[in-house]
Queue: 4 jobs
Job 1
Amino acid sequence: MAANQPQDRAKALSLALAQIDKNFGKGSVMRLGDDTRPPVAVIPTGSVALDVALGVGGLPRGRVVEIYGPESSGKTTVALHAVANAQKAGGNAAFIDAEHALDPEYARKLGVDVDNLLVSQPDTGEQALEIADMLIRSGGLDIIVIDSVAALVPKAEIDGEMGDSHVGLQARLMSQALRKITGALSATGTTAIFINQLREKIGVFFGSPETTTGGKALKFYASVRIDIRRIGALKDGDQTVGNRTKVKVVKNKMAPPFKVAEFDILYGEGISREGGLLDLGVDTGVVRKSGAWYTYGTDQLGQGKENSRNFLKDNPQLAAEIEEKILAALGVGEPGRRAKEEAAKAAQAGANDQPAQSEETKTASKKLAAKAKRGKKAEDAFGEEGAGF
């Protein structure tokens, strides 16, 4: 009976798994090592450096993403670039404008198809999250942006007096909403971006006093948390034309966290994708920089970063080729996956091409081994005789 116990347990487990697949669909339970899931589907952010820092080539589909930082640091710009990229791939997007501050003209300049972008400007936090939940559960969305968590004001606070205390209302609202929508996001493959603001905790003497609004639920449910900061100004002569931006991936369930990326945000244009390609291209060796000149293969891209950036902007096919080579070199995204597969195949082919030892070689090796063995015996015998002498 004891001998059959492992077989009985394995059979019982197989029956249970078959019943679960029948009731809830194939793949409801699987072994962690099973390679049945496709590679992570992503939405590019518009910055190649940020896509690389995320480790999977963009924002993961079916997950919660939080983007937070100080005012005017580029939070909404990054979110709108992701919306534009999702639309370019044929997807649908929605924008919950709780701050009532979305600029359609700026969104259009970033590449957003404003005619097909679903926009809601809700009155209360409950209304905003209910609309988001219904849109996500429809299964027709690829990406939804909630801007911002701080503006999701509970109805009780709006209806109350100005001095009333409403401790924990927003945190409870966020916790309830995230419990509902997280499963729906995974089932429909929709990416939810929550834009958040920073606050300072009073009386903190050790560590950073900065914290985000909306309680702790979003920190737990987010698969990716991005901290975005403005670190410098971009100038054309005396005129400021943009910001140098630094991003840190402070939480990442899809790849190793704490990666850092830097990119340029130009006023009226958004993230400079071409500038990021030049920076990463030089770092990876895909693009060569000699003095002020940038060169790719036999093509001279231009003298100076600005001219080279404009050249890539005018030649999108060349820019796409450079981007693919950068991602392949860094092992990120689909190009990186293909490069790894090709390297593995080449290594396997090299191992298979090793010539097997011929029969003559094996025979010669055996003879040499036997000769060495006889020589060893002779030495041992001589040693014994010498000892006796």
Job 2
Amino acid sequence: MNALLHLAAKDLRVLSRDRFALFWIFAFPLMYALFFGAIFGDSGGGSGRARVKLALVDEARSDASARLVAALAAHESLEVPRLDGEGEGTERPVRLDALEEARAAVKRGEALAYLRIPAGFEISPFALFGGGGDDAPHLELGIDPSRSAEAGMLQGVLMETVFGGLGESFQDRDRMKSEIAKAREEVDAAEDLSGAQKLVLQTFFSSLERLTEEVSLGESPSPGDGEDATAASGLLDLVETVDVTRETGRSPRSAFEITFPSSMMWGVMSVALGFAITLVRERTNGTLLRLRIAPIGRAELLGGKALACFAACFLVLLFLTGFGVVALGVHVESPGLLLLAMASSAFCFTGLMMTVSVLGKTEQAVAGASWGLMMPFAMIGGGMIPLIAMPAWLATLSDFSFFKWGILALEGAIWRGFTLPDMLGPCAILIAIGLAFFGIGLAVFRRSMG
């Protein structure tokens, strides 16, 4: 045991004297995190131009609600989930969630907001000017109260969409007659109107109905400022905003919480490649042969190298985490699970180090082969594009990258709000990858050493 610890300490001292390796282990990951964190921070976390994801709950199931759903799904500023099945893109039918499912999606951060179209809701021209009364069904917009800017944008989209539907209704003679008939029924049923008031309104509706029959309903003139303001005010009365507070730990609080897990993986990858090259250097310089002549077993020799690599990986992860917390305000949701994620990631890259070290017989060969092997996994696994910003096809492809599982484990402890069962999956994959690559590297190393 003492020999193993002495060998590990020796490798750590050798690493500490290699300034070039220290740059890639400590400075490069830090520069990566700061640079991309500043970029994502300036652009609002990368969501400034992203479409708003809106869950739809259509309880009315009417022709009017179907038209509203279709118009919202086609809006360029909205991303409305669609059902899997026949058709592609906008040809697929819109997914209509149950109310509780939609609220849960907003709480988990899977959707920014939900819109509930209640039973009996109708978009009527008369509703914009107070028609329908206070008891009339209202649209329900559920959103986190902290997202006031997005809430205002969604209300603007709703106004635009509903106004578009109203323009069509004004040009459709049959729909106008239907709306007038409904308005007549509401006036007849109104208990707070006197007989004289009802007579005046019924006379107005009769005149309006004759007007729709006599004139050509074409392109409507644009309303004046006063009319536009009145209609907009009436439309806002049709939308009831409901606060749906998102669960904590489900979204990054700052851009640095997105970039630091990726930078931490770059750091441990640099450690693994550095130790792989030192192992080849010791073999070519004869240092490994002298160590084998010494009274040290092969298991202790390789175990010391693996222990030093694991310790260096863990140290880099601790350093980057500490810098992020102290200097940049990165908040760690679960310190205990973060330690588990760090240990699993360090173990995985220690195993990778063993396989990488036998990819060639010279330092140059191992350096070239190792970077050529690691870079594709880093590129598809979140080293270039954050996991949270990946398109669907790349997110699926990233499952084959050990880089992705290390980042996911770290993000789970920092901001994703993972519980212990949630964390066990990524950590188990990392440990399994580490064991597999350690076994492969050990077998090839023993064969090469005779």
Job 3
Amino acid sequence: MGLFTTRQLLGYTEQKVKFRALFLELFFRRTVNFHTEEVMLDKITGKTPVAAYVSPVVEGKVLRHRGGETRVLRPGYVKPKHEFNYQQAVERLPGEDPSQLNDPAYRRLRIITDNLKQEEHAIVQVEEMQAVNAVLYGKYTMEGDQFEKIEVDFGRSTKNNITQGSGKEWSKQDRDTFDPTHDIDLYCDQASGLVNIAIMDGT
């Protein structure tokens, strides 16, 4: 495009990425920062028994402490990056008004800022993928170039993995008459922990 021709920018559209970190928002709201390379994941096992009625004159029983297990891992780094060269700052940027061109220093700052936004978005997508796998399967895998494959297993009970038998799948039921309430109650009763939220798709 020539800079000395009569042109005017009527407007521009920016394509937005349809993405929301739903699982991070719902299940992993808290961020914990470590100052060490290794991270410890603790799982406290055992249930708290219900207190029993006893006679005031009978000696009480000592309760067992709950046990636990610790997994230690060294997580991988996620470092997306962009290359910047001077030619990008010389040319007009998308969305820049041809009649009011910005100087190269401003363009350089805008390009770097946009790159940082994209890189942050890329990192959040990786974190969301890990969150989805952690919720659905109780574990996720980290792997990449020059990085040894690591499986992060949260030790979730296999009772929390639901497999609907042949012919029992909700997707094969009559939507007008089928009520999944009984199944949901059963799944909650069989779960190893407290269920306070359910997410379903439209299929």
Job 4
Amino acid sequence: MSLNDEVLKEDKDTIEEGQENTNTMQKEQEMTQDDIREVDEQEDLINEEESAETAQIEKLQQEIEEMKALAQRTQADFMNYKKRVEKEKSELTVFANEKIVTEMLTIVDNFERALQSEKENSETAFFKGVELILKQLMDTLYKFGLEEIDALNQDFDPNFHHAVIQEEADEPDKVIDVLQKGYKLKDKVIRPSMVKVSK
């Protein structure tokens, strides 16, 4: 082999070797680009999954907040309902008591008239017994919230007093006599006092 042939062969080998290196590099570059694409795709998938999970978490948090608000409203509604029922129950009790107490006032009036007519016999056992019964009856009515309206020597007030007689006096619009006692039940007038008023 001649020198030329040898140089040619070496050049050919070098070229083939260079070509192989180029092919290998191209393959490696293609593989690297494929790997990059694959990594990018995986990142995109992960990002999509994270976005979906974040959206799901936000949706669940919103549902939790809505449920909390609903629970608070329900609790408030229940407390209002409970208060309303208690108030209605109390009013019903007062109304029922009012009816009974109003009926009992007629009996009280009769006891008071009986005692008034027998004042001269106030030392008898019968008088004292009736007086004791009246006191016990009034104590029981007071326990249910009955209050006597203070009228004598007070300014006339049509909310508490019912004027049946007017009489000349020094001071006008004063209650100068109580003909029948008036009563309140839990701050509600159930019977105004029948009074004589100055004019």
